[in-house]
């Protein structure tokens, strides 16, 4: 056989083998795995290998065993009003449940979640993002991630903690002849120790930190402040960074508060190594103060109204006494500007002049 024919045969064998691997083997993969997905607080569209599988909460049955690409898309409500994404590779194992729990934040930095996958084997493996997190099992610290453990079969409480991140707790079940792999994503904590600097029309809090991940990204940091504000029980309206830039939680709501001279809550996104607010931030805060125009009560003109008199008219005198001359007369129902008053007498304006009338036959309006 010539070398050319042998080469053609070998090439044909390689192509056939590739086509069988690419298109034939998937036909023989078992479709008996399960997938459960929850996204707390929002509904999310579920995509598996770019195919839509519906919305969360999602429970898929008879799914193809093997590696897949998972993508979640959700629309965050006000004040964020944006579409957020989460994508990750997952492995579905025959006759087991893979569970994905995800909590969308306004951006990746402040999102969190966990993925639980079973493999053939025994025990527990824990992977975290960021790495090096403290791992607690049933109330006791057992090490830092990544870590492999061999707990007893049954239900356990798993807790993941890390400095500058929000802790995450979950309940896990260790089953016989299966190894549970837990991957945990922690959300950054946007607060160090909020410190009140000012209280008045502006309630100003110092949120300064020395963390580079926040100081490098003021916009995501501000969004994280608004998203997790309930954790510090402060309802922030805006945040101002070291450059003097203002980030609003809800600009329309802010404008309405300023218009009505209502109290606003502002967080300062600064560097903890600086002893005071930056010059730019101070200027921005001062500009906000100027927006609060002092509210003046509309000047009210005092008036009196003439009441019914026995004679049908009321005398207007030149002074507050019956001994003063009558200079005019007014009729019941008439209204006049009140200029002054003394015991039993009102001074009114009438026809460009002034005079006094008895309080017995007049009332203030």
From TrEMBL:
The keyword Transmembrane applies. SMART domains: SH3b (SM00287). It comes from Candidatus Woykebacteria bacterium RBG_16_43_9. Pfam families: PEGA, SH3_3. The keyword Transmembrane helix applies. The chain crosses the membrane at residues 6-28. Keywords: Membrane, Transmembrane, Transmembrane helix. Residues 299-365 form the SH3b domain. This is SH3b domain-containing protein.
């Amino acid at each position: 056989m010539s070398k050319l024919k042998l080469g053609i045969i070998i090439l044909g064998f390689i192509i056939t083998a590739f086509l069988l691997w690419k298109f034939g083997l998937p036909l023989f993969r078992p479709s008996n795995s399960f997938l459960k997905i929850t996204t707390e607080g929002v509904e999310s569209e579920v995509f598996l290998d770019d195919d839509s599988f519906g919305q969360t909460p999602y429970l898929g049955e008879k799914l193809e065993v093997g590696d897949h690409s998972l993508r979640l898309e959700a629309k965050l409500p006000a004040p964020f009003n944006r579409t957020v994404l989460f994508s990750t590779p997952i492995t579905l194992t025959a006759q087991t449940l893979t569970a994905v729990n995800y909590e969308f934040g306004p951006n990746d930095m402040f999102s969190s979640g966990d993925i639980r996958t079973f493999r053939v084997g025994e025990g527990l493996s824990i992977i975290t993002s960021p790495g090096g997190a403290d791992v607690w099992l049933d109330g006791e610290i057992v090490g830092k991630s990544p870590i492999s453990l061999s707990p007893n079969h049954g239900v356990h409480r798993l807790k993941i903690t890390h400095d500058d991140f929000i802790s995450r707790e979950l309940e896990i079940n260790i089953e016989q002849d299966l190894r549970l792999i837990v991957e945990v994503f922690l959300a950054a904590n946007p607060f160090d120790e909020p410190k009140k600097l000012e209280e008045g029309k502006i309630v100003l809090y110092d949120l300064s930190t020395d963390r580079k991940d926040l100081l490098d990204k003021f916009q995501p940091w501000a969004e994280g402040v608004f998203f997790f504000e309930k954790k510090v029980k402060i309802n922030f309206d805006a945040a101002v960074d070291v450059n003097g830039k203002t980030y609003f939680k809800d600009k329309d709501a802010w404008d309405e508060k300023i218009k009505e001279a209502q109290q606003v809550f502002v967080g300062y996104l600064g560097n903890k190594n600086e002893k005071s607010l930056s010059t730019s931030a101070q200027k921005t805060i001062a500009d906000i103060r100027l927006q609060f125009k002092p509210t003046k009560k509309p000047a009210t003109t005092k008036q009196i109204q003439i009441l019914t008199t026995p004679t049908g008219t009321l005398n207007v005198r030149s002074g507050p006494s019956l001994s003063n001359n009558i200079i005019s007369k007014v009729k019941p129902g008439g209204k006049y500007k009140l200029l002054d008053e003394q015991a039993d007498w009102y001074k009114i304006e009438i026809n460009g002049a002034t005079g006094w009338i008895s309080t017995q036959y007049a009332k203030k309006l």
